[in-house]
Design brief:
Two copies of one chain form a homodimer.
Chain A lengths: L10 H24 L6 H8 L13 H29 L4 H18 L1 H8 L11 H21 L11 H14 L5 H22 L10 H15 L7
The structure holds a DNA duplex (33 and 33 nucleotides).
Chain lengths: 237, 237
DNA sequence: TGTACATCAGTGAACGCGCGTTCACTGATGTAC
DNA sequence: TGTACATCAGTGAACGCGCGTTCACTGATGTAC
């Protein structure tokens, strides 16, 4: 009747959630071994000691299992970012440090879950297109970053350089969606910084920095601090 | 006898090169349909009207075909970047414009060859590890960008802010490899900008900007100009 | 220039494998009266 | 509270498929003398 999880749910519902979770856990394990393209329902079932056909009670198809993993990954990363932000705020950190704390959290999560990271920020899985269900989960990291910048701008009225005309409209349109109080130049800088953050993280996770960058924590930390300055978060005095 | 391609090669050698090229072309076509993980020797052979076993005269295994495609992709992208640079130099453009021209070339190439882009900058193909053969080809874009910055710095002695200690050594080490005349702060900024460039490109190619950024050329152009400033290429007066 | 031999491209059958999905079924858990 | 029925989880066999790779082979192209 109720679709929410609660302590008073029946045994059947509880069992269903446990098995669903076990399937996803095992699928995540296999993701780490073979990547998304080779994720196999049969292999998951085998490892779980069930008949492969039994999985169809939980996921109507392989793609639906993949979708669930994608949403979980976005949510897991989003939660990590939000937690890092909350912690930094609670510790009374300045916006710049809140920003870098969130970036570091994204990096840490990605390094700890490289295959889930690849699932959501790597090449799209061929023949699979993520349904709209994923977009809310996917937006969480971006929203945290925007929140930091918005709070820092409260009443500050920081001045920004001029924007090319086409970009001004662009910035205003995006701002209208997510942060009406931010100037367009800040918004476009934010979106760029957001993509650039994942450039830095992706290069490290996917090995592009091998034999090039050695002290990666220091490098990353420095780079995202620069990004923070780029979106108008001021150097601490 | 000679391993180089020449007009005087025998018919057999010429045929071999043509068939090799045909195999790679067909493989690239299939890459675009199904992605790297599903690239299949049998499907390539089928499409070419040969027995699947015949491909083994040209590539000892599926992985070797993949490796060839990866190197070709890096080289194709590298050549595009180098051509854009040469053209900008020939047109007497300033370093900032050389930089943005190269970035635009990278973007265009990626948008025109999204699946090859995914092959080299997306998730690593599971179970496949790129041999060292690829690293020279992979470095070409980075070297073009470094060249621009190095030329712009000739005798300029632009002053840079201080670097954290660990990063200074890091910057000096990388500089020693590729550009001994550049200050460490510039080098680390370069490496970051390099990764960030591919963050911007990757987000666009992989659809992360869907429903967020509309005027993508203008956005990209603005963002990479900012990157250029970040590595010390001065605004044009 | 002609002949004998070696090299090479390509064939087709076969090996062993794993995959996603369907289907009719059994037995246990839940629900309505 | 007890019984009859509906719902659901899980089974095991089967379908049809495509894959990478090996192997013994044929016939054409190149090479040495």
């Amino acid at each position: 009747m109720s679709s929410t999880t609660s302590a008073t749910q029946g045994a059947r519902a509880r069992a269903r959630e446990e098995v669903t979770a076990a399937i996803k856990d095992e699928a995540r394990k296999q993701l780490a071994d073979d990547g998304a393209a080779k994720l196999s329902l049969r292999a998951v079932a085998r490892e779980l000691g069930m008949a492969s056909s039994a999985l169809y009670r939980y996921f109507p198809s392989r793609d639906d299992l993949l979708t669930a993993l994608i949403i979980d990954a976005y949510d897991s990363l989003g939660a990590a970012a939000e937690a890092a932000h909350a912690e930094a705020v609670a510790a009374g950190k300045e916006p710049v440090q809140q920003w870098t704390a969130v970036c570091e959290a994204v990096r840490s999560w990605a390094l700890e879950h490289p295959h889930e990271y690849a699932l959501i920020y790597g090449s799209p899985v061929p023949g699979y297109s993520a349904p709209d269900t994923t977009v809310r989960a996917a937006a969480r990291v971006g929203l945290v970053l925007i929140g930091i910048v918005r709070d820092a701008h409260q009443g500050r009225g920081v001045a920004y350089g001029p924007l090319p005309g086409e970009l001004r409209t662009e910035g205003e349109r995006i701002a209208a969606d997510v942060a009406p109080d931010l100037p367009p130049a800040t918004i476009t800088a934010m979106v760029a910084a957001w993509a650039q953050l994942f450039g830095l993280v992706g290069f490290e996770v996917f090995g592009q920095f091998n034999r090039i960058v050695e002290d990666r924590p220091a490098f990353f930390s420095h780079a995202v601090t620069q990004l923070a300055h780029g979106v108008g978060l001021l150097r601490q005095s």
